Amino acid sequence: MFKKILALGFSVMTIASIQPVFATEVQQPSMSSWATEDIFEGSKYGIFPMEWCNEVLTQEVTSEQISTIINMIEEKFMVLDLVPVEDYKTDNTNLTRKGILHKLYQTIDQYEGKYGDSVEYFVQNGLLVGDEDSNLRLNDVATTEETIILATRFVEHVFDVYDKSAKGIAWEVTNGENTIYLYGVAHTGISDMYPINPDVLDAYNSADYLLVEINHFLPLSEEDKVDIFLPEGTVIQDILSEEVYEKLALVCDMQELPVDNLDNFMPWTIKNEFQRIYARLNPVDESIEQATFDYGVDRYFLTKAMMSDKPVIELESNSDYHETYYNHEYQESQIDLVLDMILNPNDYDNSNEDFLQCLQYYIDGDIENFTKLTATLDSEMSMEILYGKRDEKMASQMIDFLEQEGENTYFAAIGAGHYVIDGTIIDILEDKGYTVTEFYR
After folding, report:
1. How many CB atoms sit inside 10 A of residue 14's CB?
2. What CA dihedral angle connects 107, 108, 112 and 118, to 10 degrees?
3. 5-46 pLDDT, tens per residue?
4. Of 190, 107, 192, 89, whose CA–CA distance to 154 is shortest?
5. How many CB atoms neighbour CB 209 within 10 A?
6. Which of 264, 265, 317, 410 is deepest in the core (most CB within 10 A)?
7. How many CB atoms lie within 10 A of CB 70?
8. What's the predicted TM-score (pTM) here?
């Protein structure tokens, strides 16, 4: 089922995520160096269009930009489940820093009805500290980057106050003076998964090292790049079973695509192409946010580590991924699945709902229901491929970290499935005698 593909968001970085396109150097947006981390943080919240990060943000903010930010914040605050104050009075503001503060403050005060001083609110909560001379420059016209930063800090604070920050699923394990925070990540996500719970961020900030499955920001070596084409003398019909090849020919005929055109392509490239065909034939409801790699939680922590020079340790390698995902048997099962989706689309009408529900359990920190639903998302073959040996290898390295001398703290941002599926990392650590406790105990 399609939801089994979607489940990969919690268990693995899918094929696309380890292609060179994700390993290229990130373009540097036109913003002040001091603003970069805050703007990166805000870009995950869904409070301004992400494409703004590639625009010049040092110029004066416009009325249109303010309206966009305020509208997106008000939409994000809908998850707070607050009731607006009856006949709440809002007033127009200018584009000064003081005006921006007041406009932002009104987005939450329309529910609280305190009619307080917006400047005092921002200062008392540490959201506005001024320049090196403690000058708040309230009468200065705000720049776009200043507005985004104020909005980011404000939203983060509000979600913290109302305990609505995304908890995720997390544990910790300690041996002597060594600690590993086990934080389950989704490799694809939505803006509702941010801001992340401040206790989790404190754990991350306290860590000496970030542990990940693979650092996909590193450039691929020549030997790690994946071939698009099959070896000379081999065609796709030689690899696929007769049943799956006949299904492929049928879908090609439906799409007026000669099946012979696919003869020389590797199975994973064919699977990716037919996933695109399925998406084109079955457009999603644009009113529902779709999970993307841009909001992947592992990418979030990798970027934070890159910005702060926190050391990153890979628990796997690109060669491990090649061995796992590019074997023909697994790829054939994925081709068979996507072809069936195209041939029987009605069977997958509600396929995205389970994944979005899984994301909500994740946001709520509901380990029990997250675990139950995750266990239904992967096929038997996927379970064999995605877990087992990979978890044994990652857990073995974690044990080495726990047993070393000295005091060391690690933050392990690993696909959530590797913690909740039976027989994976947590079970292995407990079988070895370590006590693993829930982070939100």
Report:
1. 19
2. -90
3. 344 455 544 433 333 222 334 445 488 999 999 999 999 999
4. 107
5. 16
6. 410
7. 17
8. 0.85
